[in-house]
Specification:
3 domains, 9-stranded mixed beta sheet, 9 strands, alpha+beta, S-adenosyl-L-methionine-dependent methyltransferases, 10 helices, elongated
């Protein structure tokens, strides 16, 4: 970790540097991993683990104060910090072929600055589901900017052989193309933001179902979970027939489109039952299971 973050430029004037930058970074990262969510907590964590930190950090003036942590991080170059972070996580993460990497946007809690009239911080992150590890993050100004942030995040990551899943905001041809160029496959949620595509995939499955799927090659799988007073049944249909895909994408605009997918979740509780269909397109020619 220290080697990867040693490349980060120190924004402080040299005569004011009482603490090594790498020491500040190491303490903050370790504290955050262990649940610290404020600079006061980071300082407290550092002091409580002083003997351990002294075993591999210089700490010429002990543990920095919470004000020092806040001031230093406020002045760091965010792009440089992000690159160091991605370099570190990719060095320790063994992203295996077939790993599902979920890209999603979240708004950071308590990040809205009323005094400074600044909006809440919105991050787009890549989450390796098997390893429970965030591979990288990119900050956006508004949720609508996820479309521009996702390609930036993809450029930072080595996703060769992975399966990238993104919600409807990322269902864009340019994003799909970038995933393919990176040697990965995509599974993209299709909603009303892709009007023609959503209407087409909905008509495709409803039409096939009306005929009992007699004229449409398909695959089907089902799972059932019980617990907490409810029964959840999920059904998945996958159509990989090329004629059907040509109907869905007649101009071939979606790169390496191999499958149309419908997933229906059925939930049954004491109060009643609900069903919700969701649609996806994918470059995977995979079974429903």
């Amino acid at each position: 970790m220290l080697d990867h973050f040693a490349q980060l430029d120190d924004p402080r004037v040299e005569r004011t540097r009482r603490h090594n930058l790498v020491d500040i970074l190491a303490i903050a990262i370790c504290a955050t991993i262990c649940g610290a969510d404020s600079w006061v907590h980071v300082e407290l964590f550092g002091k409580s683990k002083l003997a351990w930190f002294q075993s591999f950090l210089e700490l010429p003036h002990g543990i920095p104060s919470h004000d020092t942590f806040g001031d230093v991080f406020a002045r760091l170059d965010p792009v440089q910090l992000q690159n160091c972070f991605v370099s570190w996580t990719q060095a320790i993460a063994e992203v295996l072929p077939g790993e599902v990497v979920a890209i999603d946007g979240k708004t950071a809690r308590r990040s809205y600055d009323r005094a400074g009239k600044k909006g809440a911080i919105h991050m787009v992150s890549a989450w390796a589901t098997q390893q429970s590890l965030t591979l990288g993050q990119v900050k956006t100004d508004e949720k609508s900017n996820e479309i521009t942030a996702i390609p930036q995040l993809l450029e930072l990551l080595n996703l060769n052989g992975c399966i990238v899943t993104i919600d409807a905001m990322g269902c864009q041809r340019e994003i799909a193309q970038k995933i393919i160029e990176g040697g990965a496959d995509y599974v993209l949620a299709v909603k009303e933001n892709q009007g023609r595509l959503h209407e087409g995939i909905q008509d495709l499955f409803e039409g096939a179902e009306a005929l009992g799927f007699d004229e449409t090659p398909y695959d089907h799988a089902e799972t059932v979970d019980k617990g907490h007073g409810r029964v959840e049944r999920r059904e998945c249909w996958v159509i990989t027939d090329q004629d059907c895909l040509d109907y869905l994408d007649p101009q071939g605009q979606w790169p390496q489109l191999k499958a149309a997918v419908r997933v229906v979740g059925h939930r049954q509780t004491a109060e009643g039952g609900t069903s919700q269909p969701r649609y996806y397109i994918s470059s995977l020619s995979a079974s429903a299971e």
